[in-house]
Amino acid sequence: WDGSGKLNFAKTFQGPSPCTDLRLENGRKLLEKTTVNNKFSVLDMMDILRDEQSGICMSDKGDMFRTTSSQISVLKTGNDKNKFLHCHFFTGTPNPKISLFKPFIFSKQAEIGILTISPPIEIESTRAHPLYVTHRNLTQEQLNEVNLDEFEREGIKEIL
């Protein structure tokens, strides 16, 4: 689609794509490598989503596309003895390599706060929510000051 005329989503995005086909194949290889011992965890999935060499994690280092947010869902059976039945982890920010996966459990009382609510297009054309904007403006020096990896892994151990 060249931007003129009406967008036919199915026609535009159907069929093979060199970019997505390569990412699919690389993702398959990473999964096979990670699950060779028949074990796979949330932490393993986070590592895969953060893999830039494979093209899974698309940073904004000149790439045509970028990862805008990442999600991992842990869906458990009723027999599972852990505290929560289902838990979802979202970055809500670009580039999972330098983002924190935050836990979310859907419930009637769930409150996500205001930091991930996108402003209406009339106010902000990019619709970037406050957390996204703050993350985008962080310098590498600021990111290096915080050990997100350790903080994130400890939190996951507590939840799961």
From TrEMBL:
GO molecular function list: cysteine-type exopeptidase activity; dipeptidase activity
Highest taxon of the lineage: Eukaryota
Biological process (GO), any one: proteolysis
InterPro entries: Peptidase_C69
Family: Belongs to the peptidase C69 family. Secernin subfamily.
Identification of the protein by name: Uncharacterized protein
Taxonomic lineage of the native organism: Eukaryota, Metazoa, Spiralia, Gnathifera, Rotifera
